[in-house]
Design a protein that fits this description.
The structure is a single chain. Helices cover 49% and strands 10% of the residues. The C terminus is likely disordered. Helix 8 packs across helix 10, helix 12 crosses helix 13 and helix 12 packs across helix 14. The longest helix is centred in the last third of the chain and has 19 residues. The two termini are 44 Å apart. By secondary structure, the protein is α/β, with parallel strands linked by helices. The strands form three sheets. A five-stranded parallel beta sheet has the order 2-5-8-1-9. A two-stranded antiparallel sheet has the order 3-4. Strands 6-7 form a two-stranded antiparallel sheet. GO terms for molecular function: ATP binding; sequence-specific DNA binding.
C-alpha cells in the first residue's frame, strides 16, 4: 500500500478497514463514499492489492464519464452486429477483469435501467452482452464508489434500493482532507517525490508555506493538494527556485487563508495557544471535533440531517464521525 499515505487517526481508521477486508473473502462487495478527491480509487486499489485477487486485473470505470447508451456495452460487452459499428465481438470490462476487481466509480450517476442490469450481475455472477443470447459467467469483485448520498437518492427514487443494499455490504466513508490535516505534510512530500521521478525539480516547502497549507480547507481534497504541488513544481523549474514560500502558493489558497485570518475574533473559536498536558495534537483536534459535533447534535435534538446541514458535511460523513468519535456518549455526559 505504498500510495496510501497518512498517519492521522481518521486515516488510520481507513487503513484498519482495508486490513480487515484483507482477511475476509474477496467476494465481499465494498461501497466507498466521500467527497470528490478523497482518494477512493487509491483505497480501492489497496483493497485489491491486499486481497487474494492481487496480481489479477484491476479495472476502474468512471460511470459518469461515459454516455449512458455506451456504458452498457463498455461494462458488459457486445456481440458482432449488436448495433451499428459493432463489427466484431467485444468483451466488456467485467470479462476483462475476470478473477480480479472492478471499480465502478461514481455509481450514483448510473441510470435506473443500467442499475437493474448491474443488480443481475451481482445476483447471478454473470453478464449479458449486448446482442448476446447466452449469459457469460464472471468471477469479479465489485467495488463501488460515490460522492453522492446514495441513501437520499434511494429516497428520491433515483437509485434502486435493492441495488443499494447489494453494494452496501461493507461501506467505507473516506474523510475529507480538512478532517485529516495532520497528513498534509506527508502527502505533499509524497507528491513532490513522485514528480521528481517524472523529471520535475524537488519541491521544498518553507515553514510559512506549510503553515498556509495547513490553514487551508482544501475543498478539492487530496486531488487539489496534488495538483497544487505539481503547479508549484512547474513554477520552481522555471524560476530555479530552491524553496517554496507562502507567496509562491496559488492566490486562491493564500486569499482564503488571509480572509480567515482577518475574521473578527467573535467569529473564531477561542483555543489555547498550547496543547493541554498529556494531549497530542491529533488527540486534541479529535476532542474539538467531538465537542462541536456533540453541541450541534444537542442543538438539533440529534437530528442527523439537520446537524449535517449545520456542519456543512454530508449526512453519511456525520454518521461515520459520530461512530468514530463516540459523540453520542459525549453528548450524554455533557447533559448529565
Amino acid at each position: 500500500m505504498a500510495n496510501v499515505i497518512g498517519e492521522s487517526p481518521a486515516w488510520v481508521n481507513i487503513l484498519n478497514e482495508v486490513t480487515a477486508l484483507s482477511h475476509a473473502p474477496s467476494t465481499v462487495t465494498v461501497l466507498l463514499s466521500g467527497e470528490t478527491g478523497t482518494g477512493k480509487e487509491v483505497i480501492a486499489r489497496a483493497i485489491h492489492e491486499t486481497s487474494d485477487r492481487a496480481g489479477r486485473p484491476f479495472i476502474a470505470i468512471n460511470c459518469a464519464a461515459i454516455p449512458d447508451d455506451l456504458l452498457e456495452s463498455v461494462l458488459f460487452g457486445h456481440e458482432k452486429g449488436a448495433f451499428t459499428g459493432a463489427y466484431a465481438k467485444s468483451p466488456g470490462k467485467f470479462e476483462q477483469a475476470e478473477g480480479g476487481t472492478i471499480l465502478l466509480d461514481e455509481i450514483g450517476e448510473m441510470s435506473l435501467p443500467l442499475q437493474a442490469k448491474l443488480l443481475r450481475v451481482l445476483q447471478e455472477k454473470q453478464v449479458d452482452r449486448v446482442g448476446g443470447r447466452e449469459p457469460v459467467p464472471v468471477d469479479v469483485r465489485i467495488i463501488a464508489a460515490t460522492h453522492r448520498d446514495l441513501q437520499q437518492k434511494v429516497i428520491d427514487r433515483a437509485f434502486r434500493e435493492d441495488l443499494y443494499y447489494r453494494l452496501n455490504i461493507y461501506p467505507i466513508e473516506l474523510p475529507a482532507l480538512r478532517l485529516r490535516k495532520e497528513d498534509i505534510p506527508s502527502l505533499a512530500d509524497h507528491a513532490a517525490e513522485s514528480l521528481v521521478k517524472r523529471g520535475y525539480p524537488k519541491v521544498r516547502f518553507a515553514a510559512d508555506a506549510m503553515e498556509a497549507m495547513m490553514a487551508y480547507d482544501w475543498p478539492g481534497n487530496v486531488r487539489e493538494l496534488m495538483n497544487m504541488v505539481e503547479r508549484v513544481a512547474v513554477q520552481s523549474a522555471q524560476d530555479k527556485r530552491e524553496e517554496t514560500r507562502a507567496i509562491h502558493l496559488p492566490t486562491n489558497l493564500t486569499k482564503v487563508v488571509a480572509q480567515n485570518a482577518k475574521a473578527p475574533c467573535s467569529e473564531r473559536m477561542d483555543f489555547p495557544a498550547r496543547l493541554p498536558d498529556g494531549k497530542s495534537l491529533p488527540e486534541y483536534l479529535m476532542d474539538i471535533e467531538r465537542e462541536i459535533i456533540a453541541s450541534t447534535m444537542h442543538e438539533t435534538g440529534r437530528n442527523m440531517s439537520g446537524s449535517a446541514r449545520l456542519l456543512g458535511i454530508p449526512r453519511t460523513t456525520l454518521i461515520a464521525r459520530v461512530k468514530t468519535l463516540n459523540a453520542f456518549e459525549h453528548n450524554q455526559d455533557n447533559a448529565a
